[in-house]
Structure prediction request, 760 residues.
Amino acid sequence: MSRLFICEKQTLAEHLLSALPKPHKKERYVYYSGDDAIVWSSGHILSAFMPEDYDPVKYKKWDLSNLPVFPDSWKLKVDDKKKALFSEIKSQIAKADEIVNVGDPDREGQFLVDEILHHLKVKNKKISRLFISQYNIAATQKALKAITDNKKYHNTYLAGLARQQMDWYIGMNLSRAYTVKARNQGYYGGTVRIGRVKMPTVNIVAKRDEEIENFVSKQFFELYGKFEIDGKEFIGRWKPAEISNELIQLKDRFEAGEELTEEELTQLENHQHPDWLDENYRIIDKAKADEIAKKIKNAKNIKVIKYEKKETKEYQPLGYNLSQLEKEIGRRTKLKSDDIRPVCQKLYEKDGIMTYPRSEYNHLTEDLYNDAEATLEAISAIPELREYVDKADLSIKSRIWNDSKVEAHHAIIPTVERPVFGKLSAVEQEVYRILAQRYLEQFYPEARYDDAVVEIEADGERFIARGRVTLDEGWKVVGNAFKKAGAKPEKEEESLPVLKNGDILALNDLEVKECSTNPPKMIQLLELPIIMSKVHTLATDPAEVKMLKQLKGIGTEATRNEIIKELIKSGFLEIEKKGSVEYVHATQLGKTIVKAIPNQITDVGLTAKWETALSKLEKGQITFEEFDKKQKDFVVKMINQDVKFDNIKDLPSNNNYGGKTYPKKEPAKDSGKICPECGKPLLIRKSKNGEFLGCSGFPSCKHTAPILKTIGRKCPDCGGDLVEKIVTKEGANKGKKYIGCSNFPTCKYFEWPDQPKGKK
Prediction:
C-alpha cells in the first residue's frame, strides 16, 4: 500500500524523508522512500478568484451598485509560478492508496493541504493526518506511529476556509467601496486598500503619531530625602500617604502592559486621588510640594514604620520569536529590517545552524531537551563561549521547556549542527551569537538578589526606599562574554542598612526636584511587528484581551513584515530615518483613511471577534453557514456606512500603488461645439496624450475629435480657419507638422509651414 505525504514546505519534506526507511530517491518535485512518496505545497499553491474572474464585464469597473461581491460558489486557481508543482501533486495523488496531510500543526497548516484535496475533489481514498512539531528524527518517527484520521480535523479545515473567505469579503468589497467613496469626494491618488490586519496597524501608528503631535509637557515635582542611621546614609522617595503601596504597584503593572484581573482594573478605575496629584500620583502643584517639604524639614519624629527584606529571583529569559530576534539583531548590528530576514533564512535553510525562523513562540518542547548536550557542543564553536559551555549545568531545566506553550513552531534556537565560523559573514556570526547566548542562559541558575524595602514616616508624610544586593549573577554571567570594551556599565546597586520597625532616622537633606513629562516614543520599524503581536495591551474588553493574547496579536510572524511593507507601498505608512534607526509614521493619507472609515474596521478587537467565532466553528458550536452569514452581514453594513474623508481631494497619490498612477480628474468643460453625429454638446476632455473633444453623450455616442490650434489665417479655398495638424499616415512625412483647413474632409486644402503662403 503506497502512501503520499503532502508537506507544507520542501524543508519539512526533506526532514520527513530523513525519518523514513531507506532507500531514498529525490526528483525535482517528489521524494521517495520505498513505495512512499513525498510532495510539498510551497505555501499556498492556490489563490482565490478575483471578482473580475467571476464576471469580467460586471466587476471590471468599480461601482457601488455592483457591491457586495459574494460568489455563489467559492473558486480557486493555481498560481502561475506553481503550475508544474501542482501538476506533480495531482499526478501523485492519482497513484497513491493513502494520502497523508503533513501541514503544520495549526489551523493554517490543516487548511493549506486540505484545500488542495478539496480543489481536486479527492474521493474514495484514505486520508490521514501527521503532526510534526519539530525537526527531530526520533520525534518524527514517533509521530509516524501516531498517524490519525484526517476527518477528525474537518472543522479545522472549515475554520481555515471561513477565515480565507472572511479576509476576501473584507478586502475585495470594502477596498472597492471606500475607493469609490474617496473618488466621489475628489481623490484619484490610488486604491484605498482595506484589510482586517492592515487598518488596525495603520490606526496603531496614527494614534501614536497623534499622541506625540498633541503632547504637551506637564510639570511635576518629586521629593527625595537623604536619611541616616548609625552613620549610614540612604535615599528615600516621597509617596502620598493617601495611596497604598499595593495601588502604586498595581498602577506600575498596568503601565508596563501586564494583564490585570477585572477586580484590579475596577480598583484602579474607582480610586480617587487629590487634585494636586496627577494620574500617576505625582505632585503637580509647586506650592503643595513646598508645603510638604517644609513640613518634613520641621518634623520632630522620623521613623521606620515598615521594613521588609527577602531574597528574590530573576528567571532565565524566554527564547526569541522572529519579531524579538529581528529587533535584537537590529540593535546589535544596525541592520535594516529588510536585510535581517534573508540572513536568518540562510542560516536556517543553507547552513542549518538555526531552527525555523518564522516562529511566534518563546518556549521549547520538552523533547528538545534531549538535544541539549549536542546543541551546547555546537555552540562551543564560538571561542568566547567555550568556558561558559563547559560550566553549563544540564540538570537545570528552565521555564522555557513547556509543551503547553508551543502549538506549531517553537522558539528560535541554534541546532545541533556545528557552525563553521570562518565561512560566516560578520552579521551572520552576530545573529548566531545572539541565539547561542539566549540558549546557553537556560543552563545557568536564576539570578538571585537580596531585596529590601523600607517605608518611612515623617510627621504624617511617607517615603519609600529600596535596596538590592546581588547574591548570585546566575544566567546573567553569560552576557558578560558579549560585553564590548567601553560599554556603558550597569546601574550601580544600592543597599539599605539593616533596619527594624520603630528605628529613628535623621534627615540630612531634602530635595524638591522639578520634573516634566516626556512625549511617547516614536515607533521603530523593527518594533512595529512586536506591537502587532501584543495588541492585547491596547484592547479594553476582557474577552478581546484574552483572545488577542491567545492569538499572539494580529497577523503572524510570517505575514507582519509583508503587511507593513504593503502599507508603506500603498502610501499609508512612511519611514523616517534618524541615524541608523528607522521609525515608522502614518502618512496624511493613512491618517485620513483610518479616521474616516468605521471604528469596527480599525479596532484591534475586530480580529478578536472573528477569531472567537472561528474558534466556535472549529469546535462545532456554530455551522459554517452561520459564520458565513455573519461575515456577509458585517460587510454589507460596512459598505453602507456614510464615510467622509477630510480634505482627501488635496492629498497626493498613494505612492503610485502597483506602478500605476491615477491622475486627478477635473470636470469636463463645454467646448461650445456640437457633436456632428448626435447633436449633443462636445466637451473638452483630458487624456494622457493631452486635451481632445468628446461627445457629452458618451458612452452612447463615442465621437471624438482633436482640438486644433488656429494660426490666424483663413483658408483660400473655402474661407474656413487654417489650423496646425500632424501627419499620421505611414510614410516619410509621418509626425511632420502641416497647415490644413478646419473644414476637412469637405475642404482638402493644406500647406507646409516652410512653403510660401498659399502654396501646396
Summary: Confidence is low (pLDDT under 50) at residues 655-665.
